[in-house]
Specification:
Elements: H1 17-34, H2 41-48, H3 52-58, H4 62-74, H5 87-102, H6 105-120, H7 125-149, H8 158-176, H9 182-196
Helix pairs in contact: 1-2, 1-4, 1-6, 4-7, 5-7, 5-9, 7-8, 8-9
């Protein structure tokens, strides 16, 4: 009896994820150093140690390459759901995790240039939406659970509350160009919890 050979896949060799990772990191590094307008595929290829043909096979435009780098850089911050039974504990866990990932030096330096590129290039808008929703959705879910438990007034607009949670942290990072410390993030969350919850800003014991 003969054994059937496995079917061949189309499209040639499988894509090497190491190239994707190297290109994403190179794009972020170069954005932080010189901005998006000066960024070229040749520079990215040299920094990543790959051929330009490998890049063009994956991304047909510079903007598509930037979009890839942005998605890849925030993949770790696509937070898993956290449900401790306490909105304060959920919020602290989620925001500290997002802050830890987003304030990697290479991301922090690239962020102003990523936002500048998105403001000028409409094709990057879907990436902005995708990245934002990916990070905020678990927090929005925590807010809805808190409303159901009576920890947050159900009349409070969830989107507005998310703005109060994230916007100050992002703005301070953009303006000051330095990472937020754990203490700074906790003080900010104390204010949010005191203003928007019925349980106040009590922190768990150390």
């Amino acid at each position: 009896m003969t054994t059937a050979s496995p079917p061949r896949t189309r499209g040639g060799r499988p894509r090497d994820p190491r190239v994707d990772d190297a290109v994403g990191e190179a794009v972020l590094e170069l954005l932080g150093e010189q901005g998006w307008r000066a960024l070229t595929v040749a520079q990215v290829a040299e920094r990543a140690g790959v051929g330009r043909a490998s890049i063009y096979r994956r991304w047909t435009t510079k903007e598509a390459m930037i979009a890839h780098a942005w998605r890849a850089s925030t993949a770790e911050a696509r937070l898993d759901a956290v449900d401790t039974g306490s909105f304060a504990a959920d919020l602290r866990a989620l925001v500290h995790r997002a802050t830890e990932v987003n304030e990697r030096p290479v991301i922090r330096r690239a962020l102003p240039h990523l936002l500048a590129a998105a403001a000028d290039q409409p094709e990057l808008t879907p990436t902005v939406v995708e990245v934002t929703i990916g990070q905020m959705l678990p927090v929005a879910e925590a807010v809805e659970r808190a409303k159901a438990r009576g920890e947050v007034d159900p009349a409070i607009d969830t989107a507005a509350l998310l703005d109060h949670i994230f916007a100050p942290l992002v703005i301070r990072t953009l303006v000051e160009g330095r990472p937020r410390t754990t203490e700074e993030v906790d003080r900010h969350l104390d204010l949010v919890l005191a203003a928007f919850t019925t349980t106040g800003a009590r922190r768990p014991p150390p």
